[in-house]
Amino acid sequence: ANEKAKQLLQSGHKISDADVVEVLDLWHFRKNDRRINVMQKGQTFVYSEMLGLVKIRAFSKMAVAAQSRDFPDVTRLLVRYLRDQPPEDMPEGKRRFPFTTICINKDYAASRHRDVNNVGLSVIRAVGNFTGGRLRYWPKDPGPRECPDANVLNDADAKTVDVRGRSVVVDSTQAHEVEPFKGRRYSIVWFSVPGYDKIDAGLRQDLGACGVTTVRGAEAARTWQAFEVGGR
Fold first, then answer.
1. Which of 23, 73, 106, 127 sits a CA distance of 20 to 30 A from 184?
2. Given the DSSP bridges, would you call strands 46-56 and 31-32 parallel, antiparallel or unpaired?
3. What does pTM read for this prediction?
4. pLDDT at 93
C-alpha cells in the first residue's frame, strides 16, 4: 500500500477516488475492538485505523500514529486526496481544510453515535463499489447533556447525505450513523483532536514529515465557521 501510494504521489496527477480504493485495497486493516460506540449489536470489532496525530491515552500524550510512521506515503496520499478533492463549499481564499488526524474505515455501517475526541468540524468521504451507505446525521442534536442517549433522537429530524465520492463537512460531535450498504465501502474522515494546538515544535515537525500540517486554533476556527455543515 505504501509503495503504491508513493507511486501515485510521484505521478503528479490529482488523487482520485479510484487511486484511494487501489491503495486501501492493499492496506492491511487491523481489527479494532476499542471503537465500541460505532459497533452494531453483536459486533466485537471493526476495521478502523487512525493516521496522523493521535493521543496515547495510557500516557496522556500526543504522538504521530504508528501506522503513519511506518507507512508515511499512505498518510501523505490521503492528505493530498483532500486537497485535490476538497469540500464543494471550500471558503474563498482557503487552500486547505484544517485537520490533524485521518480515520480510515472498511466495510462497516457505524451505529448512531457522537464523536467525543474531536474539535471543530470534520470531512467525510466514502469510496468503493457499494450501494447504500449514506450518512444520516442530526443537525439539531442538543448534545449528551440534554439527551444522553442519541438513539432516542427522532428519525424525522435526521438529514441524509450521500458522501460517496463527495467530501462533506459535518460536525461529528452531533449524532450520526451510516445506513446499511452492500459491497466494498471505505470511508475516510479528516478531523482534529483536542489539544493539537499545544504540541511542541518537534512533534509538529514529525507530523509534517508524513504530510500533515497543523494550523493555529484561531485560524482553523475561522475556516470552520465559513462552512455550511452537512453539505447540500
1. 73
2. antiparallel
3. 0.94
4. 66
